[in-house]
Every structure is written in C-alpha cells, then in structure tokens.
Design a protein that fits this description.
The complex is a heterodimer of chains A (about 350) and B (about 280). By secondary structure, chain A is an alpha+beta fold. Chain A folds into 2 domains: about 220 residues, Rossmann fold, CATH 3.40.50.300; about 120 residues, OB fold (Dihydrolipoamide Acetyltransferase, E2P) (Beta Barrel), CATH 2.40.50. Chain A is built from 9 helices and 21 strands. A 6-stranded mixed beta sheet of chain A has the order 7-8-9-3-10-11, with helices on both faces. In chain A, strands 14-13-12-15-21 form a 5-stranded antiparallel beta sheet. Chain A has a 5-stranded antiparallel beta sheet with strand order 16-20-17-18-19, with helices on one face. In chain A, strand 5 and strand 6 form a beta hairpin. The longest helix of chain A is centred in the middle third of the chain and has 16 residues. With about 280 residues, chain B is an all-alpha fold. Chain B has one domain: MetI-like fold, CATH 1.10.3720. In chain B, helix 1 crosses helix 12, helix 3 packs antiparallel against helix 9 and helix 11 packs antiparallel against helix 12. The longest helix of chain B is centred in the N-terminal third of the chain and has 34 residues. Chain B is globular, with a radius of gyration of 27 Å. Chain B starts with 18 loop residues before the first helix and ends in a 7-residue tail after the last helix. The chains are: A alpha+beta (about 350), B mainly alpha (about 280). Chains A and B meet through strand 7 and helix 2 of A and helix 8 and helix 9 of B.
C-alpha cells in the first residue's frame, strides 16, 4: 500500500504468515505507526490492498474500504488509551458490549481475559490508578478478549521506565508466544525487535529496507542503517583526502571520519566495533580523531548479566557504543541525554 | 592586616515608583471603580427597593403568576428541544469535515449577534401565514405567530447557538485517541458517541444547556415582535416587567428581582462545577 505522508511517501509491501509475529523496527517518524493505522483502518491508503486471513480489508480498485470498527483487528496503543470513565472490567468489556450480545455471555469472557493476564483483582479499579505495566495488561486484555485475527502493538514497552520494561518484556513475550493470531509489533528498539520478532522488517522513511529472519539481519545487514540498528557500526564512504602521515579522511553521508588505513581504495566500508567507541559527557581534547555529538536513544543491558551496556546514539553518523554498567552509572547516563562519542582513527576495520 | 574599607556604593536599589506609574494606577483604579459602579448599582437598587415580605406578597398577583409559569414552561421546552434537535449538528461540527462547514458555522452564530427584534421580524416573515414555512403550517391548520409556540420558537432561535457552540467545544476537547481506541473495539460511530464522547463531555453539554436556558429566560425583543404580549399566552416574565413598569412599579420590581436571583443562582452553579472533560 502507498500513502503520501507529510514528509515523504510511504510505500510498503509485505506479508506475514498466519499466527506469526512480525516486528516493524525503525526510527520515530519512519512511518511504522502509520502502517499500523493503515492496517487497523484508522487511515486509508492512497492505493493498495490489505488482506487479513483471506478477508480483503482494503482495495483501491475496485474500491473496498472496510471501516475500522468492522475489522477483525485488535490494537494496543502506545499510551494504552484506556477509557478513563470506565473501570478496568468495563474497559475490557467495551468491545463485546459495542457489538451487542447478552450480558451472561459477556461477563465470563471478560473475567477469563482478566484472569489470563493476571489482573482479575484490578477489575473494579479505574485506569488512572494503575501502574504502567498494569495499564498495558488491561489494554492487551481489552484487545485480546475480542479474539482478533490480527493484533497490532504500537511500541508497547516505550511508555514504561527501564526497570519495569525488563519485567514486562519477559511477560509480554510469554503472552504473545501463546497467541494464535498474527501479530505486528512496532518498536524503535532493535533489541526488542530481536526479542519479539520471528521476522523483522526495518522501516526507513516510509519504506521497508530489509525484511527477514532475525539471524539474517545480524549476518547480512543490507545497509549501514540496518547494521547500526543491529549494533554494528558500519559506514560506507569515499576517500576524500589522505595526508602524509597515513591519516585518511572518509566522507560518508552523515559526516567525515578520520581513519588510518593502508589499503584504502576509493569507495570503502568502515566498521567500528562498539567496544571501541567511548562515551564522554563533555567534549574532549585528546588523541581521538573522531568525536561526534549525539543524544542517547537507547541504553540496553546486554545479556547474560547486564554488565555491558549497549548505548545507541542519534549522532551524525549514528553510533553504537558498548560500555560497562559501572561506567554508565558513574557518568549518570540516561536516555535522551546529549553526550559525545569518539573512537580512534586506528580502531577501525576497512573493507573495499 | 590592613583591610581596605571601601564605602558601599551609592544606593542603587530599585527607584521608588515614579510619578507616572502612580498616575497610571490611579486612572486605572478610577476607571475600574466607575465601570463596577455601573454594573453593581442597578442590581443593588433592585435588591434594596422592597423588603422580602413585600416581594412575596407581590408574587401572588395573577399577572406575576401567569408570567412566571409561562416563562418556566416555555424555557424548559425550548431548551429540551434545542438539545434534542441540536445534538446531530453538534456532532457534525465537532467531528466531521464537509463542504460548507464554515458557512454553517456562520449561520449558527448569526442569531447571537442579530438584534432580537430583527430576529422577531424574520420569524414573523417565515412563520406568518404568508411565510415560507407558515404557508405549509396554515394549510395544516397550525398558526404560529402570537401563540405560545411562537414564544418557544423565538427562544430556540436566539438561545440555540449557545448550546451548539458550548457543546461543540466540549466534544472537541475529548482526546481523539479514545475515539480511535473505540473504533478498534468494534464500536460504530453512534456507539462511540453515546458511550465515549458524551460521558467524557457531558459537563460541557450541561453548561451549554444552562446558558441556553438562561438566554431563553431573558428573551424579550424576538418574543414581543413574533409572539406578542398576551397575558398567560405569550407574556413571559421579561415582557411582564416591561408592561408592569407602566402601571405598577412594585410588580415590575418583584418580577425583576426573581429574574435577578435566578440568573445569579445559575451563574453561581455554573462557576462552581468544573466543566472541562476528563482527559
């Protein structure tokens, strides 16, 4: 389907097997949530086709456009959108009530859904009194009780603080793996993509730049952006200048890198191991030739023990660093913080 | 150890208010006082004119009772009618886009700025025997001008826009995310309106209805032009006050005080109930 968005056109074409989970991963503004809204019927594509389990939900020619409320789709919103004027029970019952149907059929189904998600005891509470994790479970129950054929989740973990996120992530994974419906999960975190997705699609400026299984992404990232997303720093550039000391300047799309390379040809790939990237809270004067300013997008404790932390930055060029948990704490690093990343000109691998 | 004592610098604290600042303050205060006097004195004069005992006696005057009953009945009917007939329009304005929407908004606002007597003339022309709608109604045996129905029409005309605009603002305040959530939960637009929008915006609706009722209660110009001044039939309280002034000032005052107290009570109620929708 295609849709003209404010900054760029969205054009995607993908499919997923029934019952499986597809993760859409990419930066904010890439169009991931728009794709969900198109699937849900909250927006209609300019052109295209949407088919779920054999049911055509949208077609441009001949025109078919099923309204959102008639689609067998469940949606868990990023901020949950729980109705503030209804109790948890009534929130979960909403979708069943809106279709009519006898009370005696509704009550048990709602109770079962609440039980399944471990929130039966919150039945009479108001959403505003619940924690983020609890709200998320209510939002899930509300969508799942309708037995949708397609479940959409929009950044379900991003509204939670780091600690809660860890717990909820494991729980959510367990719940999702037990579902029989097809799931599309949107996130900006490559780590979450790896955890949740049987298949992953990378969305960049309205297009899917790569789609495939987890494993394929790590081994064969198809673009520097995808590589960066997966935690490898890979840059493609042109040799711009080379001085007598062997220092080479490489021009990439996002900035200039200074490297030392003997075998540099015109067009090269530069790979920097995240463990060679250092993080600083103030600009530094030192021997490092490459210093880039950026904001921390994500801090990911790496399994198995979380002693190493992956730091994802939106610097130009984007960088991923690997630091110790100790360092993260002593520098007081937080997501959203402006920092400086640097690596030495010698700490690179160069490919033709 | 030699410590140089430097004298403190000459006072550089804030300068005392200049003469100009004082003059401005005095002028502002005087202006405020004059304006407030204009607002407060008439109200005060009404209240101190007669004792409560006198007022209560006047209330048994048949003219007063008739006017009171007529006002209450007509304003309740017109407010209810505006709410029922107006909600679809409120829905359209708040939630939909369509060609001519701007024009519709102007048409709805018009009765609020039109001089009431002008409104009355318009109503007369529309619903009089020769009028666009009046012709049809006549054929059915229904006359409108100079009947109680005319009073209701006049009130609906001038007060309706208040409900529509206030209710619309209240509905627009409801976060769109709830509407989207409802759609993904199999709720048709009608169900969403009844079960999500209304519960989250009803304070604004109530406020709108209250203002409509208050405006209807005070309606004079359109009523007297379109409905005439027949005691018991079309002589609402504002009209009765007008007539009473010519013969019996005390009755006029009694009616005025009632209207004043009702208005005051209404405003007090409106101000103490917070009427923004919950988010």
């Amino acid at each position: 389907m295609t849709k003209q968005l404010r900054d760029f056109p969205l054009a995607v074409d993908f499919s997923e097997e029934s019952g499986k989970t597809l993760v859409l991963v990419g930066e904010s503004g890439a169009g991931k949530s728009t794709i969900l809204n198109l699937l849900a019927g909250l927006l209609h594509p300019d052109r295209g086709r949407i088919v779920v389990d054999g049911m055509t939900l949208f077609q441009s020619d001949p025109r078919v456009a099923v309204a959102a409320y008639q689609r067998p789709v469940g949606y868990v919103f990023q901020d949950y959108a729980l109705f503030p004027h209804l109790s948890v029970f009534e929130n979960v019952a909403f979708g069943l009530r809106s279709q009519g149907g006898p009370e005696r059929a509704i009550r048990p189904r709602v109770s079962a859904a609440l039980e399944q998600l471990g929130i039966a005891q919150l039945s009479k509470s108001r959403p505003t009194r619940l924690s983020g994790g609890q709200q998320q479970r209510v939002a899930l129950a509300r969508a799942l009780v309708l037995e949708p054929r397609l479940l959409l989740l929009d950044e379900p973990l991003s509204a939670l603080d780091l600690q809660t996120r860890q717990q909820v992530r494991t729980e959510l994974r367990r719940i999702l793996s037990g579902l029989s419906c097809t799931t599309v999960f949107v996130t900006h975190s490559a780590f979450e993509a790896m955890v949740f997705g049987e298949r992953i699609a990378v969305v960049e400026r309205g297009r899917i730049v790569q789609i495939g299984r987890r494993v394929d992404f790590l081994r064969h990232p198809r673009s520097p952006y995808v590589a960066g997303l997966m935690g490898v720093n890979l840059f493609r550039g042109r040799v711009a200048a080379k001085d007598g000391t062997g220092l080479t300047q490489v021009e990439t799309a996002d900035g200039v890198l200074n490297i030392v390379a003997d075998n540099a040809t015109e067009e090269i790939f530069v790979a920097v191991n995240p463990s060679e990237v250092t993080i600083h809270t103030s600009p530094l004067a030192g021997s490092a030739q490459n210093v880039f300013a950026g904001r921390i997008i994500e801090l990911v404790p790496e399994p198995p023990f979380g002693e190493r932390i992956r730091v994802v930055l939106d610097s130009k060029p984007p960088l991923v660093a690997q630091i110790t948990a100790h360092a993260m704490q002593s520098l007081g690093l937080r997501e959203g913080m402006e920092v400086y990343a640097s690596f030495k000109a010698t700490a690179v691998n160069v490919y033709a | 150890m030699g410590q140089a004592h430097r004298p403190l610098p000459r006072s550089s604290t804030a300068p005392s208010p200049g003469r100009r600042t004082i003059a401005v303050a005095v002028i502002a205060a005087t202006a405020a006082a004059l304006f407030l006097a204009l607002l407060v004195l008439p109200v005060l004069s009404l209240l101190i004119r007669s004792s409560p005992a006198d007022l209560l006696r006047r209330l048994t005057n048949p003219l007063v009772v008739q006017a009171l009953r007529l006002s209450v009945v007509t304003t309740c009917i017109s407010t209810a009618a505006v709410v029922i007939l107006g909600l679809p329009i409120v829905y359209m304005l708040a939630l939909q886009e369509f060609p001519g929407k701007r024009l519709l908004e102007i048409v709805i606002d018009l009765p609020m700025v039109l001089p009431p007597t002008v409104a009355g003339v318009g109503l007369l022309l529309a619903f009089g025997r020769a009028g666009l709608a009046g012709r049809v109604l006549s054929a059915l045996g229904i006359t409108v001008p100079f009947t109680t129905l005319a009073v209701v029409f006049a009130q609906m005309f001038v007060a309706g826009p208040f409900l529509i605009n206030t209710a619309r603002a209240g509905i627009e305040e409801v976060d769109a995310k709830y509407l989207r959530a409802a759609a993904t939960l199999r709720a048709s637009p009608a169900y969403t309106f009844l079960r999500v929008i209304l519960p989250l915006s009803y304070p604004a609706l109530i406020a709108g209805a209250a203002m409509t009722w208050a405006r209807a209660l005070g309606e004079f110009g359109a009523t007297i032009t379109f409905a005439g001044n027949l005691p018991g039939v079309t002589q609402t309280m504002p009209l009765a006050v007008y007539i009473a002034l010519e013969s019996n000032l005390d009755v006029a005052v009694a009616l005025s005080v009632i209207l004043l107290l009702v208005s005051f009570g209404l405003l007090l109620a409106l101000r103490s109930v917070p009427f923004t929708a919950r988010k």
